[in-house]
Each structure stands twice: as structure tokens, then as C-alpha cells.
Amino acid sequence: MMQVDDKIKAEVREVVYDFFAEECEIDVSEITDDSNIFTDLGGDSLMFLALIEIFTKKYDQEIDLKTIGKYSVKHPVETIGELVDMQLLIIEHGNNILELDR
Question: How far apart are CA 76 and CA 48, in angstroms?
């Protein structure tokens, strides 16, 4: 497991905000933690996969997408803030993320 510190939290937030600004063709200043990914930004679920890929490379992790899929079915995200929190959990717990439900 990886220790998530304030630096990683800030990096993840910045990457998520920049990613959605670019992909949804909006200014990053228009995005908040409360922005709904689907209704406010026009995002889709494929963006989640792209972000997981970005972070697995950035933090040199191997994560089973099936495991992440199982977790996200039980813990769906709709807002940017929820997505940032989930990405941090994935970085911190990796393939052990399902154990958080136990």
C-alpha cells in the first residue's frame, strides 16, 4: 500500500481538474468539487478508466480493473470531489480496496 500525503492529494486533485477541463473543453476555474461529472461537465464513465490509467502509471501501480469496477459499483461517484476521493483510495489501497467494505 502507498501512503497518501498532502502532496499526493494536491497532485491528484490537480490532475483530475485539468483532465476534465481538457476533455470537457471548459476552463478549469469552472470546475469545483461539487461539479457533477455527467450533468455539469458532460463527462462519461470512460473518463474514469483513463484517469485510473494515468494514476497507475504516475504512481507505478498495477491495479486490476475488475477490482476497481466491483468497488465502484458499490460506491458510485457523481461529483469531481467524490472522484478525487476514490482515486486517492485506489492509490492508497490498490487491489486491496475491496477490503475497505469488510
Answer: 11
Task: Using CB atoms within 10 Å of the CB of residue 99, give its burial: 0 to 12 exposed, 13 to 18 middle, 19+ buried.
Answer: exposed
Sorted by where each starts, the structural domains of the chain and their CATH numbers stand as 6-101 (1.10.1200.10)
Is the pTM of the predicted complex or chain greater than 0.85? yes
CA–CA gap between residue 6 and residue 61 (Å, rounded): 19
- Find, among 90, 63, 96, 87, the residue nearest to 10 by Cα: 87
pLDDT digits (tens, 9 = 90+) for 19-69: 999 999 999 999 999 999 999 999 998 998 899 999 999 999 988 989 999
What is the distance of C-alpha 66 from the center of its chain?
A: 15
